[in-house]
């Protein structure tokens, strides 16, 4: 299977802190790759480094066989990488409609088709179309954030903890939507909720102290109690 | 009643001039997080270049357009050469833009001499007319009309165009705008130029209003503009017009009734707003 995204010994500093100390991973086209690890392990920084928001100081990041580690964030996004940040990044004073319009690279038929698709996937967004993003519930904000990343024809989505702070019923809805999206888009998912991660994920990487320490098919992790206990603190 | 109406009209006209100056400042601060103390210098350059062009060509319209173009060009140069290297560093921004403010003021003296210049309105805007027993000075009405026109035009762009959406989104979350594939630095440059153009427009309109222009006028008005930005809410365009009108009216009435407290009243107004709404009247609470 084609490798769409590859990180090779990537290191990143935030200020004086050496956060990523050697991240290597491969993301296969059409799969959901889940990044797991304890709080502060470097999962979010890995996504931010791919996007160029926290630029790497060493190593290479390759997307569709092109090195992107030196590119500014907007160029990385233009290559076809959508980003759903941990805090959702909603523009609070813009309406749902405006949040999506800012994201849309064009108003072509295919973009409109994707918009219709996403509004059917998240009917709440249609319902609150003219409502400011800041007034949405946590779950609706998450849906809007995912919709914004998906509305363009992105080849890869980086989704950071979509279940964080959401009620179980909303988590289920978000999970269903990601499962539906994985048919058309490659996804890198950071997720603390192991139930969700193991349901959606095809492949996993465990990050510990800024390094990738384990990886494999999700089935392996599901069956390995010891690995889960050691790196994730769950049985 | 006549006094009240005239003070109101005077306050509104002053408010519009301050609005034109402050609107650019608030967008520049809100979007780019840049403290631009040179903004007053661009305002003064607008006043001088516009007044000179009007005197040279005899066309007030050419004077206004020339001032705006001067503001746009100086804004472009300032952003590319002076501001760009100090993005993200407020201390350096304050130092370098204060320095630029002084340089711009001194350069005015080099080009047009150290004495103040007189500025007059064109014939069609001179004088006054009477409505219901109240005398209305034409030029003040003209300033108010231009201010409102600019407000609605910019508001239309901000609300109804993609670039406007990007600017509003950028004020809230620059990082996310970039993550959506938008080159925010190009937007920074455009906003800086437009803000500078508006400052220059304010400067050229001030000339006939006050009768004279001088090289230090930039700093005087920049202080009022900063007060307006704080009261209206940093980054809020609608906030800047409301705050500018408040400051203009308060200045006009205080100057008539308690002249010694005219500037102090604005400071007091700012302090009261900051106590009850630290983010300003329309400021976005990040």
From TrEMBL, chain A:
Every ABC transporter domain range: 5-234
SUPFAM superfamilies: P-loop containing nucleoside triphosphate hydrolases
Keywords assigned by UniProt, alphabetized: Amino-acid transport, ATP-binding, Nucleotide-binding, Transport
MF terms (GO), sorted A to Z: ATP binding; ATP hydrolysis activity; branched-chain amino acid transmembrane transporter activity
One of the Pfam families matching this protein, by short name: ABC_tran
UniProt record, GO biological process: L-amino acid transport
Family the UniProt entry places it in: Belongs to the ABC transporter superfamily.
Entries under PANTHER family matching the protein: ABC TRANSPORTER ATP-BINDING PROTEIN, HIGH-AFFINITY BRANCHED-CHAIN AMINO ACID TRANSPORT ATP-BINDING PROTEIN LIVF
Protein name, per record: ABC transporter ATP-binding protein
Organism of derivation: Bacillus yapensis
Organism phylogeny: Bacteria, Bacillati, Bacillota, Bacilli, Bacillales
Automatic annotation (TrEMBL), chain B:
Subcellular location: Cell membrane
Transmembrane among keywords: yes
Gene Ontology biological-process annotations: amino acid transport
TM segment ranges: 12-32, 52-74, 94-112, 132-158, 187-209, 221-249, 256-276
Stored CDD domains: TM_PBP1_LivH_like (cd06582)
Subcellular location, principal: membrane
Name of the featured protein: Branched-chain amino acid ABC transporter permease
Natural source organism: Bacillus yapensis
Lineage: Bacteria, Bacillati, Bacillota, Bacilli, Bacillales
